[in-house]
Amino acid sequence: MKIILNVMRQQRATALQLHELLPEVPQATLYRHLHKLAEAEVLIVVDQYQVRGVVEKVYALSEEGVNLTEADLENITKDDHMRYFTTFVSSLLHDFSQYLEQPDINMAQDGVGYRQCSLYLSDDEFAEVIVPFQEALQKAMQHGPAPGRRRRTLSLVIIPEAENKSEGE
């Protein structure tokens, strides 16, 4: 999937074009991954046309990225979660790499940052922190492209510590 997404970041493509660009990926695997990425709305169909009785779909990366609902989260496997997370992380790596390849960057002026911190919070305390943050993000996400605005990607990962079963037994 990572290889497919790296190609799709640069262009729109049909399954046949992807197969030609990625001959090392078995065709059945390519189609299976395309189907899963389209189901998850990571890829969207932007055009389709008839070719010798078959509908050829043109895929592109979704501008909105992966936004799984609670219902989606309930119905996907651990392997699906790992695939989606891998896609998310590879997207971060690609975007940061593209940023660093610019000739003149000023990370402080551009607002670039990355950090990790651990918070020890009860569920209620966690809600006090995250709910206002989510509300502020929802408000900011309503802004579209306009003069004076620059697209900025904010990525947030929340991972609770794995429960140590030997402690609770």
Automatic annotation (TrEMBL):
Protein name: Transcriptional regulator
Organism: Paenibacillus thiaminolyticus (Bacillus thiaminolyticus)
Taxonomic classification: Bacteria, Bacillati, Bacillota, Bacilli, Bacillales
